[in-house]
Amino acid sequence: MSEPSQRKSRVSIGEGIAIAALFVSALGLWNSWRGDDRPGPTEVVERKAAVPLVLRGRIEDNGERLVIEPVESTHALDSLKFAFASGKTIETGSNGTLTAGEVEDALPENSEKIDGQILATVSGRYVESGKDREASRRYAIRYRWEGGGLFEGKRLRIMDFRRA
Questions:
Q1: What are the domain boundaries of the chain?
Q2: The model's pTM
Q3: What is the pLDDT of residues 73-89, one digit of tens each?
Q4: Whose CA, among 2, 72, 85, 153, lies 20 to 30 Å from 12?
């Protein structure tokens, strides 16, 4: 008798592709779970260099007040400290306002009432791009004396504020 024909087991093309896809998926899963110390994706962030604090002064009330503010609009003043050559210090808040009376008090003892300038080291705390920063620089405050008539004393007027 004749034996029934035996089928040879062959893998069709579709089955081969399915087996290859299963193999590639298994390799991908193994690669993601093996937990080696390869760095992940790198985030590129452009970082701006810190801009140093530079101050400018605006004279108000006919020389009675000096309002000091940062030149750079990205800086927000927290506080200013003036250390004068005479040894006196004055601290201001974020408004950076210095009066003529404060400048007069910072002049050296027994100074003559003549026009001149006084040097100060100005230390500022400020915020730039969300970070607290500190800076220090020397500035000159130029002043002038007015008045001094028969019945009145001389008064100090602030004329200028600039880097020394």
A1: 55-163
A2: 0.66
A3: 888 889 999 999 888 99
A4: 2
